[in-house]
Amino acid sequence: MASSFYKWLVIPVLAVLLSAAGLKKSHPFHVSVVEINHNASDKTLEISCKIFTDDFEKVLAKNYQTRIDLINPPDKKAMDTVVKKYIVSHLAVSADGKSGNLVYLGFERDAEAVYSYVQVENIVSVKKIDIINKLLHDLFDDQINIMHVTVNGNRKSTKLDYPTANATLNF
């Protein structure tokens, strides 16, 4: 009985107290979400990558041995440089067998996450998309990468569990 009491009352109370004291434990799962939308009129693949801010800051600091602050960057240009480097080296997209060059557009913070934006130009139509997604694979061995791809209003989704990094979607 005491064990049950401890599990259901004391642990949650302790978590609240630690959080209030600024010792908040990080979230218990590691996930990113990549959205790819084919914009037929602009002939582009518009891509957004949503990553938890704390995870993203950790992986950038680890990979580039620099102080990272994506919430209040003292030098936005320097943060753009490391975010761009990371995204283009950990994400690749091919449409109908044609490898796409990721053009970095920027990043923004929203609540607990950072959105990074890239696009692939000169994509007239899409029948098949191949994706290599290694986001946060260099930090977590329980990483989950979810991808949603929309072409001509048709949305398909897939999930990659570490260490799997490749996905193909046919439209």
Q: Total helix count?
A: 3
Order of helices and strands: HEEHHEEEEEEEE
Which shape, going by the Cα principal axes?
Answer: globular
Strand content is: 35-45%
Structure summary, number of beta strands: 10
Largest sheet: spatial strand order: 5-6-2-1-8-9
Our measurement of the CA-to-CA distance between the termini, rounded to an integer number of angstroms, reads 56 Å
Q: Give average pLDDT, whole number.
A: 88
Number of folding domains? 1
Q: List segments where confidence is low: pLDDT < 50 over at least 5 consecutive residues.
A: 1-25
Helix content: 25-40%
Largest sheet: 6 strands, mixed
Evaluate the radius of gyration: 19 Å
Structural class: alpha+beta
Tell me what the structure shows.
The chain has 171 residues and is an alpha+beta fold. It has one domain (27-170). The chain contains 3 helices and 10 strands; from the N terminus they run αββααββββββββ. Strands 5-6-2-1-8-9 form a 6-stranded mixed beta sheet. The chain has a 4-stranded antiparallel beta sheet with strand order 4-3-7-10. The longest helix has 19 residues, at 2-20. Mean pLDDT is 88; it is low at 1-25.
Summed up:
This protein is an alpha+beta fold and 171 residues long. The chain has helices spanning 2-20, 53-64, 76-90; strands spanning 31-39, 44-52, 91-95, 98-99, 102-110, 113-121, 128-133, 144-151, 154-161, 166-170. The model is unreliable at 1-25 (pLDDT under 50).
Topology:
Elements: H1 2-20, E1 31-39, E2 44-52, H2 53-64, H3 76-90, E3 91-95, E4 98-99, E5 102-110, E6 113-121, E7 128-133, E8 144-151, E9 154-161, E10 166-170
Parallel strand pairs: 1-8
Antiparallel strand pairs: 1-2, 2-6, 3-4, 3-7, 5-6, 7-10, 8-9
